[in-house]
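Allow me, if you will, to draw on your knowledge of protein folds for a short while. I have a record of one protein: its chain in single-letter code and its fold written as discrete structure tokens. The full record is reproduced below for your convenience:
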Amino acid sequence: MTAPTPSPLLCARDLTKVYQTGAAPEVRALGGVSLDLFPGELVVLLGASGSGKSTLLNILGGLDTPTSGTLSYRGQDLTHADEKTLTAYRRESVGFIFQFYNLIPSLTARENVALITDIAEDPMDPASALSLVGLSARLDHFPSQLSGGEQQRVAIARAIAKNPDVLLCDEPTGALDVRTGITVLSAIERINAELGTLAVVITHNVAIADMADRVILLSDGRITDIRTNKSRRRAEELAW
């Protein structure tokens, strides 16, 4: 018997985003993107600078709103949601990881993660979140005592400590060397596998695409191709 197709976690239809500043010509960042994203997927958004990747990620995360089109989360319309609803969505359901770690220098790794767990509805213990990214021995170290890769893993632990359904990663290895980047990708991959979190990763790096369930290629604000990987490679196996 064929297993039933799961319902999408996020459903985007005909999303557009147009920016207009004064008398300057309008900039069309997204030109009609339709996409379903499912629980437990690891999805890579691939494309050159200006292709619309970050704009799409920001809309998926409730950080920006589309000019037209619709976005729903578990069937709930987010496109016309008020700010209170979007704030609750970002706080409870979405974890964000950016290229820069944005840690508070005066707080330890554990304390940086606790900032999120203090406001989340059903959080992990900060030590458990840091253990998931391989930092059990660094709980009480300050950011200045951590390497770049370790700081990024603290940022990942902070993002997943709220137990989000969705993990959105904007160039998470962009500021790291190759070996350290693989360690960070391995942490994201582990969270995706162990927690069943939908992970969406923006990158310019074609090699990273080999670790994804699906690769979505964007150009000029449109999806130009969607590739499905039948056999994902682990981060450690990537040929950089």
